[in-house]
Design brief:
The chain is α/β, with parallel strands linked by helices. It contains eight helices and twelve strands. The N and C termini lie far apart (74 Å).
Length: 249
């Protein structure tokens, strides 16, 4: 079922601090969102299963089961967008959040306006359907993208991509053999609010290389232009073999 992007979207807020939950709920309900709450990672998993929310706002630092583990468990059965909240601001913490399946990351303290802007951007992104510019399929070496069926294969095997991974790959494929600068990719895939969030690109380019490249440490498809951006490169077709030399009498 497609996710709603309007203000009637259902938001699940997960935090063990009642005051923060009340604050977030009040600001979201004021804008027309429907809000439910959970106070632990276990409750969050149960609520996602039972309520099928449109987005989850999830605190990382919770007792018993933290937000990382809760996200990992949710990702076993759901692709619901997840915005993580944390008091930490280390890049390693952000990367860990993305590794387990978070869609965005907001550091405490944050303003209600900033949270609402992130929620709207993630909901909009989760609903976006990248369209091919010219044709229903794209091929680069042993990588094939079937845009009509949103199906990706590499070396003859189907590859499962997250929605964000698919949007990023589609953007690169629609601009194949051209370097896309960091800001351009971030705006196309995540939105204009994210044009400076280069760590998002680092993480998801790494994910794509791990899934698509024969040797992720030495990529041949998704190549980087250091300090500039990334390009999906179509390999040159192999030259036909030379005819055998005529035998001498």
């Amino acid at each position: 079922m497609p996710r709603r992007t309007g203000d009637a979207a259902r938001i699940l807020v997960v935090d063990d601090e009642p005051r923060l939950v009340r604050l977030v709920r009040a600001n979201l309900e004021r804008l027309g969102y429907r809000v439910s709450a959970a106070a632990s990672g276990k409750q969050a998993i149960e609520a996602v299963e039972a309520e099928d929310p449109d987005l989850v706002v999830l605190d990382i630092m919770m007792p018993a089961m933290d937000g990382y583990e809760a996200t990992r468990r949710i990702r076993e059965f759901s692709q619901v967008p997840i915005v993580m909240l944390t008091a930490k601001n280390e890049q390693s913490d952000k990367l860990k959040g993305f590794d387990v399946g978070a869609d965005d990351y907001l550091t405490k303290p944050f303003s209600p306006e900033e949270l609402v802007a992130r929620i709207r951007a993630v909901l909009k992104r989760s609903q976006a359907q990248p369209e091919p510019k010219t044709r229903p399929t794209f091929a680069a070496g042993d990588l094939v993208i079937d845009f009509a069926r949103r199906r990706v294969t590499a070396r003859g095997e189907e590859v499962r991509l997250s929605p964000t991974e698919y949007r990023l790959l589609s953007a690169l494929a629609n601009n194949a053999d051209r370097v896309m600068v960091h800001e351009e990719l971030l705006q196309q895939v995540w939105g204009p609010e994210y044009r400076d969030e280069t760590e998002y690109l680092w993480v998801y380019i790494r994910y794509l290389r791990q899934k698509l490249e024969a040797d992720p440490a030495h990529p041949r498809l998704i190549v980087s232009e250091p300090g500039v951006g990334y390009m999906l490169r179509r390999p040159e077709p192999a030259a036909p073999p030379l005819p055998p030399a005529p035998m001498e009498d």
